[in-house]
Amino acid sequence: MVISATRGQAGQIRSGSAATRQTLAEVRESEFRLACEWLGVAHVACWDYFDGALREADPADLVQQIDHVIRTFQPDVVFTFGGDGAYGHPDHVAISEATTTACLRTSTQSNGLWLYHATFPRRRLLLRDRLVNWLIVEGPDFRGDAEFVHGLLLLAEEASSLHCMDDHHEIKWFPSGYAIIEQGEHASMLYLLLDGHADVVREGCDGTRQFITRLEPGQFFGEQGIARGVPRNAHVIAAGGATCLVFSPAVPTLFEGRGDGARLVTSATAELADIDVAGATTRIEAGDALQSKLEALAAYRTQFPFRPDMLPESIFRDLFGAEYFTQVLPRRPIETTLGVLQTARV
């Protein structure tokens, strides 16, 4: 059973063709049910608390409603958000508190209930590197369509908020004539052109410039020379203004060096074999269910419009192939929580 306490009517509409503000509640509930269908969930319920105002609801009434579901459905295991609400969402925090209270109340009368809080540890994974490795195989002429561009932008936002990737990413606008990358400089950033154009220009020893090609929206350039010899032997110059999604291994400083002899460049974040599990006690390897999980995410067209096949499965597996939880009930002895990581497979 999966229960959503709200219908999501106050959420963002990231695909204008999917819903309007007036239809969003109905559409989001339909998306929720479709997502559950992809995951094989047999029992689905959507309550009518107002989205974004769950914390203003009477806590006693919310706890009582959850308690009634637990007693009626009699689950063996309950999953909910942790106390941080994943990324501070007040609805997530409120449902976590109410569910935990209801489960604690039930556990005083029965020792059979298990409660887990979802945990989102910092993964220390650079999406930039995964994209670069994929683009090397795809070739320098790869160009994503508008749906790909929008989907990757939202994927970066969601993966970052849930700590699935460690890149710094931002949308930057460059005025006409600005050298986004200078010839010969070390470029640690990966750029996806969202809007406008950029010219690839090679400069000779005498200062004359030779036009090589024009980059279009949906094309990548930057790290490791993804697009036609860029960046080591050519400039990439904004033509009439260009907007890019920029992936970098760390937050750029205000004193980044430019040019071939630059020494002050963004330093890469080392990828660690170990994940900071942030108190998690259980890891579920969801790789066998990855395609169903991606289809469930894609069901939310109003919130997360993307194609499950827009990137290689290996990238999605790195981002979403494992989920982490903290066992709340039955209560664990303190001495057994240190350094313990249980593993389960679905």
How would you describe this structure to a colleague?
By secondary structure, this protein is of the alpha+beta class. The chain has two domains: 2-121 and 324-345, Rossmann fold (3-Layer(aba) Sandwich), CATH 3.40.50.10320; 127-248, Jelly Rolls. The chain contains eight helices and 13 strands. It has helices spanning 24-38, 59-73, 85-88, 90-107, 127-138, 146-161, 290-298, 313-320; strands at 2-6, 44-49, 77-81, 114-119, 168-174, 179-181, 190-203, 209-215, 220-222, 235-248, 282-285, 322-329, 342-345. The strands form three sheets. Strands 5, 6, 7, 8, 9 and 10 form a six-stranded antiparallel sheet that branches. Strand 1 (2-6), helix 1 and strand 2 form a beta-alpha-beta unit. Helix 1 runs antiparallel to helix 7 and helix 2 packs across helix 4 (90-107). The longest helix has 18 residues, at 90-107. It starts with a strand and ends with a strand. Mean pLDDT is 86; it is low at 267-273.
Question: Measured on Cα atoms, how large is the radius of gyration?
Answer: 24 Å
Give the overall silhouette. elongated
Low-confidence stretches: 267-273
Largest sheet, if any? 6 strands, antiparallel
Number of domains: 2
Total DSSP helices = 8
In the CATH hierarchy, the architecture of the largest domain is 3-Layer(aba) Sandwich
In percent, how helical is the residue content? 25-40%
CATH superfamily of the largest domain: LmbE-like
Q: Helices and strands: which structural class? A: alpha+beta
Average pLDDT score: 86
> Secondary-structure element sequence?
EHEHEHHEHHEEEEEEEHHEE
Q: Which assembly state applies to the chains in this document?
A: single chain
CATH topology of the largest domain: Rossmann fold
